Amino acid sequence: MRFWNLFWGFERGLAAIVAGSALFLIIGITVLSVIGRYFFHVDIIPGSYNIIERIIFPILVFAAIPIAHREGIFPRFELIAVNLPPFLNKIIGLIVLTVELAIYGIVFYFCFTFLLRAVESGRSIQIGTDVFPMSPILAIIVLAFGLVAIEALRLVYRDVQNLFKT
Predict the structure, then answer these.
(1) What are the residue ranges spanned by the domains of the chain?
(2) For a FRET experiment, which of 36, 45, 127, 148 has its CA 20 to 30 Å from that of 86?
(3) Is residue 105 within 8 Å of 149, Cβ to Cβ?
(4) Which ranges constitute the DSSP H helices of 20-134?
């Protein structure tokens, strides 16, 4: 149980600190861009739209995915089986969760291999005249899907244990 408390604390920290900071940056960059454009007739932060679109927004979204999955904000397909008998409902829920786990595992694998190739090749993003490495953003995506896959694995284990309990 201690491991899961640490794990969930890490998820909360990732969402609160990383996603919260990203949201704060989006707001700050947007406000500065508007002030610069309308009051000073100058682009204070060149390429601000591209910075938000290609760097900060993906960080915001993918940092928040693990906690959104754990809190049940994602739609779940086993809700269809609510009117079925309890045992059949548990079986369908376990099957759906196993399919989810497989999908998250596959996405994690492909994101991880893409990250490795991006690091090897030095893949970058061009914003205006500047070039930024893509690997930190990809690392957050890999981390997010890894955390979701671990949580889905925990839920499958829990559901298998609860399957035959009364």
Answers:
(1) 2-163
(2) 148
(3) yes
(4) 20-35, 48-51, 57-70, 86-121
